[in-house]
Structures are given as C-alpha cells and as structure tokens.
Design a protein that fits this description.
Layout: H1 2-23, E1 27-38, H2 62-78, E2 90-96, H3 99-106, H4 109-112, E3 117-120, E4 130-135, E5 140-148, E6 163-170, E7 173-181, H5 189-209, E8 214-220, H6 228-233, E9 236-237, E10 248-249, H7 252-257, E11 264-266, E12 269-271, E13 274-279, H8 280-283, E14 290-296, E15 317-318, E16 321-322, E17 332-337
Parallel strand pairs: 1-2, 7-8, 9-10
Antiparallel strand pairs: 1-17, 2-4, 3-4, 5-6, 6-7, 8-13, 10-13, 11-12, 14-17, 15-16
Helix pairs in contact: 2-3
Length: about 350
Amino acid sequence: MKKLVVIFNLLLLFVATSVAQENKPSLYSVAFYNLENLFDTVHDTGKDDFEFLPDGDMKWTSAKYEAKLRNMSRVLSELSRDKVADGPSVIGVAEVENDRVLNDLVKQPLLVSTGYKIVHYEGPDKRGIDCALLYNPKLFKVTSSKLAPYIYVNDTVHKTRGFLIVRGELAGDDVCVIVNHWPSRGAASPARVRAAEQVKVLKDSLLHENKHLKLIVMGDLNDDPMDESVAVTLGAKKYQKEVKNKDIYNPWWETLEDKGVGTLLYRGKWNLFDQIMISSSLLHAKKGLKYDHNEVFMRPYLFEQEGKYKGSPLRTHGGKTWLNGYSDHLPTIIYLTK
C-alpha cells in the first residue's frame, strides 16, 4: 500500500511538472540595428557611394569590408541570446547598400547557423542606403512585403528611404513590421514630420483592415520619442495606460527621458533615435503574443574605452580614420511573451 502511495505521488508530481512546463510563456525577441554604412567595394550605378570605394575618401578596401561584416555579425549574433536561445525572430536594419552586402552578412560564420533570410527592396536614396529585414524562417513566416515610398511633395532634395512593410506569422499570430529610416538631422523637422504622417496612414490602414493585427513600427527615426514627429504626428504614447485602440506604445520614451539611456551620443548628450513601437493589440493582448519589456543592447566592446570620445559608441570611422568599430548607433530589442 505504501508503495502505491509513493507511485501515485510521483505520478502527480510528474503531471504537475508537465502542466507547469506546458503553461510557461515562450519568449520571443524583435530587434533593430542601424549598421552605419554597410557598403561593399563596388560602385552601384546611379548612387553616390564613391567615398566607400577603394580609391574613395574612406579607402574602403575588401579587407575593411570583411572586417565590417565580421563586426556586424558579432553584434547580430549576440542580440537577446542571453534570454532567447534562437535570437531575434526578426531584425530590422538600416544603412545597407544592396542585396550583396545583406547576403554576405547572413553568410558570416556567426550568423549562418541561424539561417536568416532577407527582405529588401532597392530604394531611391541618393547614397544608396536602404532598410531591410532579416528573419528567422523557423520562427517568422513571411506572407507579404512591399516598399512604400517616402513622398515629400514638390521636393527632390529629401528623396530618400521608403517604408519597408513585411507581414507574416509569428507564434501563430498575424504580425506586421514597418522598418523605417527617416530623413537625417541634416533636414529640418518638417521632413521627419512628413515621414510620421505617412507611417500613421499606413498604421491606421493596416489596423482598420485587421484590428487584431500585431503591428510593430521600428527604425532609426532621427528624432527622439518626445519630438513632434513621433509624439504628436505619429501619436506614440509614453505610458501604457494612455494607449487605446489604434494607438501605439513607445517604451523608449521612458528609457530616454526617465532613465537617461540612449542609442547614440552627440556632443555629450544621449539621443534615442532607434525605436521599436507596438500597437495596442500587442500591448493589451488577451491571447497570443504580448509585449513584455525592452532593452538597449550594450556590451563593453561597443564603446570607446579611452580618449576624448570614451563612452561613445565605437563606430567604423572617426572622420576618415578607420577605427574598425561597429556603429554610431546601439541596437534596440523588445521581448514578447506567448
């Protein structure tokens, strides 16, 4: 009888453990990284990429290009791996020249085992830099994609990157990602406000079509979360309690304003241009994927360790001097539970 009780208790323990493991939330991650001038060494017709050629201002040789690929792959291969074994399901990237650099990147030894696939469209940017999406096909199944053009009426000066829209299935949910790289600070604020207007139209249209769509808006916005383009025009909210219906939540506002953490340093001041925002359907989800938390990815090797610029992100070049660094931006990550 005593043996039967012991066996029965062991069975109960086994069942309870199995149920607990079954109900344990799965964790997924989504990331963004501005790769800062990922150019190859070959001229692309019609593009102003001359400084990134072997005889250009940056003396951009094959050896430097290969070093850049290794450095970028190191960062991408480490994103969220301390929390999510498979790494990000999708990674939005900016400042990539073409398909060739993207294919060379995902074939790097540190990335090849993940099997990342690419979504990229050649855009109209004069320098030839585009946005793209890397995705793990075991986790994210692409169903559609397109590049929506950036339009600034009667203006050819600000003709630049469009808005990369990629829709697919992640953890059984209908998920759409919009990857952005808005006009630089070299352009006045209205150029970025115009970008925000267009993204808002895209956002509203997608959510009107499917109010349950899990929407993610990410990118280098060249504005901080509290700036007019993001906070007012796009209407991204700082606090979760403010987010209603078709609103989107911007967790990076608190990260920068309340915690003092940014992704790029300019004249001793941190900015946070690299944002990943989410729809209310991801924030307040009652089932499926739900937002959990965010992170600016920081590792010591990503920063200058000494000298005048100590504490700044270690970039590829300082002026025209090759530093063999990474990027002037830090990557950002959001985590989702299922």
